[in-house]
Structure to design on (486 residues):
């Protein structure tokens, strides 16, 4: 147990305690002019995270200006009747801390006024320790579930359990990922830019025991080297010019969750050494700080660089490579998993027709889909996302067709096989090439009939000379959805 102290008018000995064995998050500020009440709350919070005390309003505001907090527990008498707007001011601080007002004998009108001003809840400190501890634990739990620093809306992350692929290479990646999803093993994801490395990391997090906590992503190549150390580990007030308040880093914000280090191959050798130490010891130290803090974050790193060459050139530490790459997954480029393009295109269409208020765009024609499948996609999934969004915006009919696609897709090839697709077929054995050609023909054929019969399954099956059950099965295999043709 480590003790920190700061002076106040009523308590010159200080009241700040922090156990490095306890979770780093959340941090709580307790403000009260009554030392007994303040110490009681601090004692109850001691096992839940870092708790500090401030005796007077001026002291409270100084601490709020210097440091990040998640919960601010302030006694009722420090919020005069005409100053309830101070609660809203606290809520607008970086990190948007929750405000809890505590006291005794509060009138219903006063309670309503405080909650209307933005207080999360009100606590009666006259209750027994057991009941008060339960209330505080619930508040801490609520804040922890909120995922401080979360960079995505709740439920937005994909999950491995819901992912499937028609590509042999991608199925192997998903098989390996599922083997490690429930562990805290560090992962290294390799692959070209835009191939979906972060998407895979989010899916692993979404199915892991850490799914209820934050997923924090930082692009190591996008942050200037001089600021990346602070971005990762945080800094203390005054650590450098411009550090006007203490700031959490990504490690702290990812406590209990997952930290995704994108483009880790671009990190300087100096920072690689500090990252290695954090991974080995589970401890970090803020820039300008001298107190280590324990953090619990699963690390998933990714890069598009050739790390073997980088290690030979002395640009990447071999010991860090072995620490990060306990398990290494390689995302195949989109051109090597063309089988997945129809399903990806349909999912993206559904997303953008809603986001862009283009519900009249109900599908993708067979010719346009063939053009998408034939393209080599140097920008991978990111490029496909851009093309589908653009096509939904420009589409003038009920479905995306060749004229709606960008010129670089060589739209004239859509009705035929396409040079790139031809080369791909000749690389397959005869049975596989025949199956691929049959799938392309079936997609165009059924797309035409479904459009002609406006999605009516019975009529389409009758025209095709197959049963409705067979038609439904083939449509599912080809990524054709009935709703697109109504």
């Amino acid at each position: 147990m480590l003790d920190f102290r700061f002076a106040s008018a009523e308590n010159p000995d200080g009241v700040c305690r922090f156990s490095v064995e306890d979770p780093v998050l959340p941090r709580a500020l307790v403000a009260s002019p009554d030392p007994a009440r303040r110490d009681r709350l601090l004692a109850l919070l001691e096992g839940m995270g870092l708790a500090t005390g401030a005796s007077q309003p001026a002291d409270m505001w100084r601490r709020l200006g210097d440091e990040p907090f998640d919960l601010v527990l302030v006694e009722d008498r420090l919020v005069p009747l005409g100053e309830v707007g101070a609660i809203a001011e606290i809520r607008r601080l970086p990190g948007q801390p929750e405000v809890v007002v505590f006291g005794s004998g509060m009138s219903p009108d006063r309670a309503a006024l405080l909650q209307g001003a933005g207080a999360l809840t009100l606590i009666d400190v006259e209750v027994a320790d057991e009941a008060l501890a339960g209330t505080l634990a619930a508040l801490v739990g609520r804040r922890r579930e909120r995922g401080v620093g979360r960079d995505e809306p709740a439920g937005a992350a994909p999950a491995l359990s819901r992912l499937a692929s028609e590509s042999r290479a991608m199925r192997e990646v998903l098989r390996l990922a599922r083997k490690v999803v429930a562990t805290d093993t560090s992962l290294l994801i390799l692959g070209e830019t835009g191939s979906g490395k972060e998407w895979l990391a989010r899916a692993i997090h979404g199915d892991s025991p850490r799914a209820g906590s934050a997923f924090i992503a930082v692009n190591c190549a996008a942050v200037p080297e001089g600021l990346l150390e602070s971005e990762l580990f945080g800094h203390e007030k005054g650590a450098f010019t411009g550090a006007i308040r203490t700031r959490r880093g990504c490690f702290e914000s990812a406590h209990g969750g997952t930290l995704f280090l994108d483009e880790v191959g671009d990190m300087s050798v100096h920072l690689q050494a500090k990252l290695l130490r954090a991974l080995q010891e589970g401890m970090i130290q803020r820039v300008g700080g001298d107190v280590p803090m324990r953090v619990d974050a699963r690390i998933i790193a990714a890069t598009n660089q050739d790390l073997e060459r980088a290690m030979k050139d002395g640009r990447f530490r071999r010991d860090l490579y072995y620490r990060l790459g306990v398990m290494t997954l390689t995302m195949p480029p989109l051109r090597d998993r063309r089988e997945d393009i129809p399903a990806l295109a349909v999912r993206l269409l559904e997303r953008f027709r809603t986001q862009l208020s283009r519900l009249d765009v109900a599908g993708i024609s067979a010719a346009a889909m063939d053009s998408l499948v034939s393209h080599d996609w140097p920008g991978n999934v990111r490029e496909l996302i851009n093309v589908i969004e653009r096509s939904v915006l420009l589409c003038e009919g009920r479905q995306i067709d060749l004229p709606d696609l960008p010129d670089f897709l060589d739209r004239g090839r859509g009705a035929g096989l396409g040079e790139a697709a031809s080369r791909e077929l000749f690389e397959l054995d005869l049975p596989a090439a025949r199956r691929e050609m049959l799938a392309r023909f079936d997609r165009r054929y059924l797309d035409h009939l479904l459009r002609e019969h406006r999605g009516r399954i019975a009529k389409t099956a009758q025209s095709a000379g197959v049963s409705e059950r067979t038609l439904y099965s083939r449509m599912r295999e080809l990524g054709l959805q009935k709703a697109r043709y109504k």
Remarks:
- The first strand starts at residue 2 and ends at 4.
- Residues 2-146 form a domain with the Rossmann fold fold (CATH 3.40.50.2300).
- Residues 1-25, 147-156, 411-420 have pLDDT under 50 and may be disordered.
